[in-house]
Design brief:
Blueprint (H helix, E strand, L loop, with lengths): L1 H17 L1 H8 L4 H8 L3 E6 L2 E10 L2 E6 L1 H4 L6 E3 L8 E7 L5 E5 L6 E2 L4 H4 L5 E7 L6 E11 L3 E4 L11 E4 L4 E14 L6 E13 L6 E3 L2 H27 L10 H15 L8 H26 L3 H28 L2
Parallel strand pairs: 2-7
Antiparallel strand pairs: 1-2, 1-4, 2-3, 3-6, 5-6, 5-14, 8-9, 8-11, 9-10, 10-13, 11-12, 12-13
């Protein structure tokens, strides 16, 4: 009996020693270091003339794609995709996701792909461990950022992983399954309590990623048109910034602004305010003229863009500009009333 027991224990010990590495890998399969090693050949650096970001190779619907954010490649002309070992990957036709800040590129290179999780709301749970694997600060260093899954929405997820600018375009990996649940996209900062209005110290930062599995429609990208829309939207955003600067600083010096649509009305208002002509200018009329001129200038570019812009990503950003402009108009009108008194 003792001899049989000894033989049995010996066999168990031999098998255990033989399969230890396999068992260790199995036990460690869901760890962040193991995932980083496992997917290092699927992580991508996206680098262009105006900046750098992250990306990854992913299997979507049985096909391999290089994936990143639209905001990473929009305006970043000549963006190149390389792996950790600096070897380039070849990409083909690009497609922009509707309703999501995601851009895919057909993969022309033979590169290992990560697996996308489907039905995230069913296969992942609040509180699950996640890791963001990407190019932190654009320094060509793959630095995993661990955290928890805090929220699941129809088109995005919220995570506690404290990813930064260079992580835009990084995969958000579900640790337990090893699958990609979303792509790191943006963060919001709340500096004041929405109920009490008191400052938050420190400010509350929330981080979000767009789900890959919930994209319903893709727009093929024609780069000349896509780039033109990016440039047009950039000018609109710059004009909004100048309008907000005027409201924030209440600085009437036209030379402090670069946009002719803002400078022109301010120059005319300055001339009217001097009252050096034969006909004296009514202060209220001058204030109304300034407000109307700014309204018209800031309505024209929006109206033209609504006709010209067709890519969903830019139309959504245009909608944000419309909201900012509408809020600015209300503040401007209230301010102009005080100037006319």
């Amino acid at each position: 009996m003792k001899k049989l027991l000894l033989v049995t224990l010996t066999i168990i010990a031999v098998v255990a020693a033989f399969r230890w590495n396999e068992w260790r890998d199995w036990l460690d399969k869901g760890s962040v270091p193991q995932l980083t090693r496992r997917f290092s050949s699927s992580l991508v650096f996206v680098e262009g003339k105006t900046g750098a970001g992250s990306g990854f190779v992913c299997d979507i619907g049985g096909k391999k794609f290089a994936v990143t954010n639209q905001h990473v490649v929009a305006g970043n002309s000549g963006a190149k995709f390389t792996l950790l070992d600096r070897s380039p990957i070849e990409v083909g036709q690009a497609a922009a996701a509707v309703g999501h800040d995601i851009m895919t590129f057909a993969l022309l290179s033979d590169t290992k792909a990560m697996e996308m999780m489907t039905e995230v709301e069913k296969n992942a749970a609040i509180g699950d461990d996640v890791s963001v694997l990407g190019n932190s600060n654009g320094d060509r260093i793959i630095a995993p950022v661990a955290g928890k899954l805090l929220g699941i929405g129809p088109d995005r997820v919220e995570v506690s992983a404290e990813f930064v600018t260079g992580n835009s375009g990084s995969p958000i990996v579900h640790i337990k399954s090893g699958k990609v649940i979303a792509i790191a996209a943006y963060a919001t900062v709340r500096r004041f309590d929405s109920v009490t209005g008191r400052p938050k110290d420190p400010p509350e930062v929330k981080r979000f990623g767009f789900r890959l599995d919930s994209v319903k429609q893709w727009q093929p990208v024609a780069w000349p048109e896509y780039s033109a829309e990016f440039q047009a939207l950039g000018k609109i955003e710059a004009r909004t910034d100048e309008l907000l600067k005027l409201l924030r600083t209440r600085l009437f010096d036209a030379a402090s602004y670069t946009d002719p649509a803002i400078r022109g009305p301010l120059e005319r208002y300055a001339v009217a305010g001097k009252n050096t002509g034969l006909i004296k200018t009514d202060p209220l009329a001058a204030a109304k003229d300034l407000a109307n001129s700014l309204h018209n200038a800031c309505d024209t570019d929006i109206a033209q863009a609504l006709v010209a812009i067709r890519y969903d990503h830019f139309r959504r950003r245009l909608g944000e500009q419309q909201k900012l402009r509408a809020e600015s108009y209300k503040a401007l009108d209230q301010w102009m009333k005080t100037l006319g008194k």
